[in-house]
Amino acid sequence: MQQLTSAQRRELRAQAHALNPVVSIAENGLSDAVLKEIDNCLKAHELIKIRVYGDSREDRIAYYEQICAQLAAAPVQHIGKLLVVYRHSPEKAAAEAKKNAPAHSPAAPRRTKRSHQG
Questions:
Q1: Which residues have C-beta within 8 Å of that of residue 23, sequence separation ≥ 6?
Q2: Over the stretch 83-115, which tens digit does the pLDDT of each residue have?
Q3: At what angle do helices 32-45 and 57-70 cross, to 10 degrees?
Q4: pTM above 0.85, yes or no
């Protein structure tokens, strides 16, 4: 399970505020299929909301701890029937860094048509 500082947790809670739940846990509880779907969503988005249908607070806390332990994720927030979970994705960070990197770095200034004439 990842550990977050309070500043990181606060930042992630702010980002998660506008998110909609992407996974729901219903009557059948936390099955292998649900865990696999949560894992896929964490790979794609890093930060997700999970809605738990059920009135038992103890079950929700148990699901939250089990998700974080089995998927190596960090607990961000548990409010009501919503769970917010984060897992850093090195592949996504590398792709983001590559996207933000300059395409090429010119060594010399670009020559125009007039600069070749004289």
A1: 34, 37, 38, 41, 48, 50, 51
A2: 999 998 877 667 777 777 766 655 667 777 776
A3: 60
A4: no
What's the full length of the chain, in residues?
118
Q: pLDDT by residue (tens digit) across 3-16?
A: 899 999 999 999 99
Separation of alpha carbons 42 and 75, rounded Å: 12
Cβ-contact 42, 90 below 8 angstroms: no
Structure tokens at 101: 């990197």
- The DSSP string of 43-108 is HHHSEEEEEE-SS-HHHHHHHHHHHHHHTT-EEEEEETTEEEEE---HHHHHHHHHHHS-S---SS
